[in-house]
Every structure is written in structure tokens, then in C-alpha cells.
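Recall the central idea of this unit: under ordinary conditions, the amino acid sequence of a chain determines the structure it adopts. In this exercise we apply that idea directly, starting from the sequence alone.
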Amino acid sequence: MSFQDPPTLLSLAVQSLVKNEALAINALQELPRELFPPLFKAAFTGRHTKILKEMVGSWPLLCLPVGALMNVPDMSILQAVLDGVDMQLTGNFHPRKRKLQVLDLRNVHHHFWDVSAGPEDGDGSAETVCQKQKATRPHRYALRRRLKVVTDLCLQFDLEEHQTYFLQWAQERRCSLNLCCVKMQIRELPIHTVRKILQIFQPYCIEELELNTGWTLSTLACFTPCLGQMKNLRKLHLTLVHEKLFTFLRTSTDIQEKSVTKFISQFSKLNSLQHLNLTGLYFLTGHINELLGCLKTPLEFLSIALCKYSQSDMESFAQCQSLHHLKHLHLAGIILHDLSLVPLGIFLENVANTLKTLELEHCRMTDSQVSAFIPALNKCSQLIEVNFCDNDISTSVLMNLLHHTANLSQLIMELYPAPLECYETGFVLRAERFVQLSSELMNILCTVRQPHSICFASQLCLICSQRCTYGLETRLCHCCQ
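Accordingly, the structure predicted from this sequence is:
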């Protein structure tokens, strides 16, 4: 037989109030502040929208992190909450009696709901991302007493109903509220729509921006002044998807160079940038040094994918001071077979004490290029993950590479390409040869150190679009079975 603890007086009081809507609303003015959080949670769970609206309108604590309760967007609850904010804006509150300062709509865990809010607990919960920012804020005196509405946005071509409603509501009240978007994802929206959205929110509040678009270089250059206003931006993920790349490349050289310069110059204004992820920025060839030279703070994460490198671009890694404490370097789809990778070896020595992940996938590196940085790789004692898949490396160089990983005791994930000797003319994989050589390489590694998770992977099969892999288990593509 199991016994359950009897309900507390607090829970009984909350249950009684949510069952009587009129009583709950009338009691709000006299309700002890300790009852507000549990009553709000109960009303939220029971979808009592009228109670929610009135509670937001008379909220006695500094912060209301309602987004932590909204695992799934709910139009009726969102509308009730925003109607409650309108009550705050139109109510005749004395400045000292007006408590609510931050409405947090982000769907992130918040300790506020884990404890009963006592006299001080609710006030302490008002510490939000926007309040922690140190950069100079425009109109800071005018914004000081405004109610802050903090949110994250993921906007695509077809906006959902709750997104359209919120953006329209925010647009109409942007002069009365301090609207902050901390994480903003924008995918496949035209630039005029993006500009309208960015005009709603304070740019200094944006800490993470993900922009996935098919814009041309000239269109991107028109957007860059907006980027330069995001003084507290910590993470930037920019992906350009080009359906007509050759049309873009026929752009006048003078016009293209001006657009590139305009784009790169904005990075000198991003004083908090730590995470930079760029994909498909074809125009950066020959300009990587300028881009890295504009960085004001040390990067922790750098990913550049689907872009052609020049030799000067590769040399800029070793020269850039902002990369000397880098923790993660990911280069994917960067064709390097015609470049000297000696500068990469120098760079690896510079970051030997900080680098944790190194991904050089699908770079078409050759034996001589990999051999150029193997000694430096051996010094990167903090590495936990490496990926060298889709590179043209022979068995002997792979053996040498594995022998030089003895000091990399923290590696927990290793991905290596199938040796060149596994292929026939036209890169047709010989399955038996692949298994044999991979087994030999695995045995060599086990004599050096004990691997955690390791995989040797072939190139994608041109027929079935699968890989053959050898690691903890062997898996052959459909064509090799």
C-alpha cells in the first residue's frame, strides 16, 4: 500500500481559487504575493485565460517568466498574457506600485517556477539577459521605466498564427515597451520583411542571430548596417543558399568589392562576438584576412563552409590574434588540395592548449598536406573530437596520423576517411579491402591508446548515396552488401 502526502493549505487555496473565476479575479488585489506564482501555474495548466489576463495586469513581482511554461505555442494563452500587458500599459499605476518589469516569453527553464516565491524570490528572478548587458544602450533613460518583453523568434517564410499575432502586437506597441529578442532565427524571408522585424526590437538585445537566405551579395550588403547595430551579438550563423551562383559571380568587380567591404566592416562593431558560423559566402575568397582582422574579441567557435580559400586566406589563421584561444574550428567543403597547409600547422600550435574540436571534412586534402600539420596536431592535448572524412589520404599517412595521436587522451569521437587504397578507378570502393585496411588501422591505434568512439568512413556511394563504415560495427552500403 502506498501513501500520498496530504495536500498543503497552499495547494488547497490555489485549487479553490481556480475553480471560482470571479472569486480569483476579485481576490487579486488582496492576494499575498506568495500565492501569485502557484495560482498562475494552476490557471495556466487549466487554461483559465481570464484569470491569466487579470494576473498579468496586476502582477506584484518584478519578473514573469511565462515562456518557461509554454512548451507548445498556445494562441489563446498568448493572447491572454499580452492582454494583461496592455492592462499594465493602460492602468493608472503609481510608479512605485508598478512591479512588473520583465515579461519573459522564452521557452527556457526558469528556476522561478521551481520554488515558492517569497518576498525576495520574485524580485531576484527579474535578472534577465537584457539586464545583464553592459553595452551602451540607445535611449537608455527613456527605456529605463518601460516594461521589457523578452522573447526568442524563429521566423520562416510562412509565419505561424501566434507569430503573426505577436509581431503585429509588438509593432503597435514598440513605442511603449522595451522589446528584446535574444535569439533570432530568420529563414527565407525577403529583406524588407526582415528590416521591419528588426525595427520592432532593440538591436542591442540580440545575442544570437541565425540568418538562412538566398540573398545576393548586394542585398546582403544592404542588410549589414542592421548587423552592425547588434552590439551584444555573441553568436552569428549566416548561410547563403545560391540557386544562380554564376549570375552572382558575373557582378561587376568594383560593385562586388564595395559590397564585400561594406559587409566585412560591420564585424568591427560586434564587441561581444564569440561564435561565428559562415556557410556559402563565396565572395570571401581572398578576404578572410580582412574579416578576421576586424574581430574585436577572441573567438571560441569558428566554422566556414562551402567557400574557396586562397593561400593568403589560409595564412590568416596563424596571424589572427582573435583566434589564439579558439576552442572549435570547423571547415567543411573548403577545397584545400592546391594550398600549402603549413600555416594550418602553425595555427594548431597556437591553439594547442585550447582547441577541443577540429573538423576538416570534405576538404580534399592530400597526403603531403595532412603530413604538414600532423606534428602540430600531436600537441593539441585538449582535443575531444576530430573529423577528417572525405579527404584523399593513403594508408601510410593515416598510420602516421594515428601514431601521432598518443597524447590526445581526451578524444571521445574520431572520424577518419577510408584509405585511398580501398578504391578502384573512379573511386569505386572495394568492400573487402576497406574492411581489411580499416581493421589494420584500428589495431595500430589500439597499440597507441584505447579509443572511445572511432569510425572509418568511405565516400558517399554514387549509386545508393550511402557510406561504408568501420568502427564499433561494420556497415556496408547497399551496393557493397
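Residues 60 and 475 are 61 Å apart (CA to CA).
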